Amino acid sequence: MPEPTLILGTRGSALALRQATLIRSFLEARGVSVQVEIIRTTGDHIQDVPLAKIGAKGLFTKELDQALLEGRIDLAVHSLKDLPTEMPEGLVVAAVPERAPPWDVFVAHPDFAGRLEDLPTGAVVATSSLRRQAQLRAWRSDLQVVPVRGNVDTRLRKLEAEGWHGLILAEAGLQRLGLLERVRQRIAPEILLPAVGQGALGVVCAEANRRVRALLQALHHAPTAAAVRAERALLHALQGGCQVPVAALAAVEADGTLVLRGRVVSLDGRQVVEGVERGPMAEPEAVGKALAEKLLKQGARAILEEIRGQHP
């Protein structure tokens, strides 16, 4: 008797569908029948309100989590940066594929011929995250940083319609959508350190679903998984999220050493606390917690308390 078709849940945006297609193709290449089911999430209904003002925990995942727990779908694909640092009971991140480029990129208005460093005084740059806004202000306080919401294609249309000088997006999303020609430049981490989990995918299923967990093992990339676990442990220890501008990026070196870099920035960009922590790849959570403790002692605690006071 053939195995039953797996139901793969996803959001309905072009990027989410592309990410789901990558996982479906992997499974179908192994003879597994897969059906994609689109599930609208709370976040899909909110297009014009900054995430920091509404609280974003589970905003893009809760409905998919519920479908998994109820057995209506067998697995779900997420951008890992959308996953809360604490998974709901009964669910597990079954696979983390190899990471796409984690960097932020500058997408310029067609009428602006320069790069990020060529922006004139008072130039307008749009971005969706407090993390990017705060770091841009720390780099150049003269910039006018404005919020933008919507899917990638929506943001690209707004760039031209609003006449902004440029837009900040994740390179991985543009790569997956085949839109890398829109990138004017990759932004150095000294200016913009990425979001926790940026560029990585997380495939979630019920903890008890042994079939799906076994099928996904070949897709799992241990160095990427260790890196994002360290980043997520840092974020969790700092009690961060979309309302707090925490940036982090980890990587595993050739000798198995996990190197984690983290940064906390005040909303006005005037205070920046950053550091680096190293440890074994096998202990990513310990590396993340150690860096969090270091950053808190260096001044991140005061920054975070002030931000939480502004975004309770």
Outline the structure in words:
It is a single chain. The termini are far apart. Helix 8 (222-237) runs parallel beside helix 9 (284-310). A 5-stranded mixed beta sheet has the order 2-1-3-10-4, sandwiched between helices. The chain is of the alpha/beta class and 312 residues long. The chain has helices at residues 14-28, 51-54, 62-69, 130-139, 152-162, 171-176, 210-215, 222-237, 284-310, and strands at 6-10, 34-38, 75-79, 91-95, 104-108, 124-127, 144-147, 166-170, 185-186, 201-206, 246-252, 257-265, 272-280. It is globular, with a radius of gyration of 19 Å. Strand 11 and strand 12 form a beta hairpin. Helices cover 33% and strands 23% of the residues.
Largest beta sheet: what is the strand line-up? 2-1-3-10-4
Overall, the morphology is globular
Unreliable stretches covering 5 or more consecutive residues: none
Mean pLDDT: 92
Query: Approximately how much helix is present in the residues?
Result: 25-40%
Task: Give me the Rg, rounded.
Answer: 19 Å
**Main sheet properties:** 5 strands, mixed
State the separation between the terminal residues, measured CA to CA: 55 Å
Number of helices: 9
Structural class: alpha/beta
% residues in beta strands: 15-25%
Q: H/E series, N to C?
A: EHEHHEEEEHEHEHEEHHEEEH
- Number-wise, the strands total 13
Labels describing this entry:
five-stranded mixed sheet, alpha/beta
